Amino acid sequence: MGVKSFFHFFWSLMKTNISNVYALRLNFWIEMLFMAINNGFFTITWLILFNKFDVINGWGIQHMILMLGINMCAYGIYAFCFRGTADYLAGYIDRGELDTFILQPKNILLNVAGSKCSPSALGDFASGVLFILFSGFATLAALPMLLLGIIAGALIFLAVGIFIGSLGFYAKDTEGWGMQIMNIFLSISTQPGSIYTGFIKTVLLFVIPAGVLTFLPVEIVANPTWVGILAIIGITAAFFSASVWFFYHGLKRYESGNSFGIRG
Fold first, then answer.
1. Domain residue spans in the chain?
2. I need a labelling partner for 124 at 20 to 30 A (CA). Which of 36, 118, 232, 256 fits?
3. Rounded to whole angstroms, how far apart are CA atoms 65 and 132?
4. CA nearest to 186, candidates 119, 87, 257, 99
5. What is the pLDDT of residues 49-90, one digit of tens each?
6. Per-residue CA distances from 201 to 14, 42, 51, 237 (Å)
């Protein structure tokens, strides 16, 4: 699949998801509203904490709001565009439903990833934009770094989703505990990046890529350096490439459940 056809197919998937959301637009607005409210209450906890301690290892409330904003935007993009990975891929594998995607002459991974979307994710994205605007770091000069942080974060969420979903190739019934892994990752990536130092910070950069969602994006926005920019690009590219390899390596092991069908 060439680059042009790849993006054409991706846009077709997005149009399908948007049409499905529009068909249930009342439900969409309700889900988006409650997600935004949930994000607001979650943030109140950190506002109270930073009001008490003012600074946590060099971070003020502005840094925390910026981190949460980038994180929410990144997760919103991932969950709206590629929810078919962590949430559904392992189930497709266990039930033999992956055959439906394999039979189609399209990019299998993109087809699976884009097969589902979360309407409430747009509430995450909208919340993230507001958080960034109120962080004090939203300037025209900072825009390239903000976009880099959001795109890198979305790719990291996607990579983790692919890893989790692809566990179904290597073990049975991974759907439940795979989602627990995603929840743990989300929990780690929504803590103040400044609390991670030394060995733990290294682990969160090179083993569990939560650093791309916590301290790295804040660093390149607040104090951009070539080291930070190359680090976030390099780590994101490495983890995403590894997740794609993990998926296709597992695909070779896939034993068909003989469940054939045609997906609309």
1. 3-253
2. 232
3. 7
4. 87
5. 777 777 888 888 899 999 999 999 999 999 988 988 888 888
6. 36, 24, 25, 19
